[in-house]
Amino acid sequence: MATTNGRKQQTQKKSSNTSGNSRTSQQKNSSQNNRGQSKKINAPANTKSKQTTSEEQGQSKQQKISTINKIVETDEMQSILERSEKYLTSGYPVHFTGAAGVGKTTLSFQLARRFNQPVTLLNGNESLSNTDLLGGRIGYTSDKLIDNYVRKVYKREDQITERWSTGRLLEAVKNGHTLIYDEFTRSLPSTNNLFLSVLEEGILPLYGTQRNESFITVHPNFKAIFTSNPEEYAGVHKSQDALLDRMITIPVEDPNKEAQVSILTERASISEKEAETIIKALDWAKSTSRENDTHVPSFRLAVMTAMLSSEHEVKIDVKNDDFQQLFFDVMGHYFLENIQGEDVSEAQKRMKEELKKV
């Protein structure tokens, strides 16, 4: 019989990953891999073609997502990008402001790509707090050690350690990321006060983080891009003048008609005539909204209409029933605002007749 020298300790440690669980997981994965290999060997000949079709569909979907995230660089957009790149390189944050759907967020990502460094995205909202920006406690780790080498002596040690997460602003400032703060005026002004010292003094105060240091210095590669909607939009707060004074504000407007046609033809692979038809339909919807003093639909909805028409082979014609239905589905929110108490079916029928005259 083998004997051991030294102390015998029984150690119990709370952990989510134990060796037993690891062995069980390995056995389970091994078993699943074996079953998967067995199925592959015995599969019929058409399995490969099915897998290829699935891969092609996945690639097609990825291409569509990539297309949506791209921006068509018109002369105006190109000018904004070039100017903004210079400002950010010189250390000044940039602020894009304009109505919803004009492409502020897409423009921000296009600008961020020019610097070839990590990008951190923040979405403004009223619940955003210092904990989200700087970090905070996310739980505890408990360690327990029990030693009963001598039967009459019982020794136990417990250790509890706080677990902290790093906030996204702290991560970006510390490591030199490009920060995109989308719709920052939807956050409370008191939350945005943190950015005052970041943009002016180049330091980030560490309020309530229980760190030894009271602030950290902003990384020299850190860059900040802000976007906002007009103040009359619901859920938008008035930003502090002190914060706006620290950034360069550039208005972003809807592209002109020629640029809109170019955007639709490139994104949705449709003809110029079809693009013009969608833009005319959008202009009619905008005019109807203005007459009824309701929210005006954005160019973003024209892009959605073009993409869906192209993907599902809907004939782009204002007299085509399928196109009419698609258009009213996309414009659903604005359509409901404009019926003003009418029966929905009757209102839609009336508005479809009006659309045919566009």
Automatic annotation (TrEMBL):
SUPFAM superfamilies per the UniProt record, alphabetical: P-loop containing nucleoside triphosphate hydrolases (SSF52540)
Catalyses which reaction(s): ATP + H2O = ADP + phosphate + H(+)
GO biological process: gas vesicle organization
Keyword field contains ATP-binding: yes
ATP-binding keyword on record: yes
Domain AAA+ ATPase: 90-258
Keyword terms: ATP-binding, Cytoplasm, Gas vesicle, Hydrolase, Nucleotide-binding
InterPro entries tied to this protein: AAA+_ATPase (IPR003593), ATPase_dyneun-rel_AAA (IPR011704), CbbQ/NirQ/NorQ/GpvN (IPR050764), Gas-vesicle_GvpN (IPR013462), P-loop_NTPase (IPR027417)
Entry GO terms, CC: cytoplasm; gas vesicle
Positions of region (Disordered): 1-66
Transmembrane segments: none
Primary localisation category: cytoplasm
Subcellular location: Cytoplasm; Gas vesicle
Family matches, as NCBIfam families: gas_vesic_GvpN (TIGR02640)
Family as reported in the entry's similarity comment: Belongs to the CbbQ/NirQ/NorQ/GpvN family.
Protein name: AAA+ ATPase domain-containing protein
